[in-house]
Write a structure and sequence with these properties.
The chain is α+β, with helices and mostly antiparallel strands. The chain is built from 3 helices and 11 strands; from the N terminus they run H-H-E-E-E-E-E-H-E-E-E-E-E-E. The strands form 3 sheets. The protein has a 6-stranded mixed sheet with strand order 2-1-4-9-6-7.
């Protein structure tokens, strides 16, 4: 109760205009209620996040393979359209069978997902990823959960690749 009284002293009594007693009581109750609600959100959010991530890690990942180019060195993503569902866990396998390096660039998409990991060879990367470069013959695995629905552009930003048609679309639905 000391915290609430102190909070009341700072917020309510700092107001200099005279007010009727009933208005002060309403203000005090409102301030206390707002304070308690704020504490409730602070206390609940980390627990909810931990519970959510634990549930997501138990969920089997849906596997999707995307080729960046092909053995004929055509500049395209195969497939060039992905349909994902928010809240589902995915394992995206990226391969580059061509003789050219390519990028898998989809920044807005990457901002709307939770990345569990990206693995290439014996290296595992965690955290925010916006672009992956695959050298000729390379493979990478991206495990993630889409969080934000929308339609996002995909492209290879190497000069000439986007213009030649190395573009795609990633759609996330609820």
């Amino acid at each position: 109760m000391k915290i609430y009284n102190h909070f009341y002293e700072i917020v309510i009594k700092s107001l200099t205009c005279p007010t009727p007693a009933w208005v002060q009581i309403l203000r005090r109750n409102y301030v206390i209620l707002a304070f308690l609600l704020g504490l409730n959100f602070i206390a609940v959010t980390p627990a909810m996040a931990a519970n959510l991530s634990g549930d997501l890690l138990k969920q089997p990942a849906t596997e999707i393979t995307v080729s960046l180019g092909n053995s004929a060195n055509e500049l395209k993503f195969e497939p060039n359209h992905l349909e994902l569902v928010a809240g589902k866990r995915y394992q995206l396998r990226l391969t580059n069978p061509s003789q050219l390096k390519h990028y898998f660039t989809a920044k807005d998409f990457a901002d709307g997902i939770w990345t569990q990991k990206v693995q290439a060879g014996k290296v595992e990367i965690k955290g925010a990823i916006h672009e992956l470069e695959l050298k000729p013959g390379a493979e990478a695995e991206w495990v993630f959960v889409p969080l934000k629905s929308g339609t996002y552009g995909l492209r290879c930003p190497i000069p000439g690749h986007t213009e030649a048609g190395m573009v795609g679309e990633i759609a996330i639905t609820n």
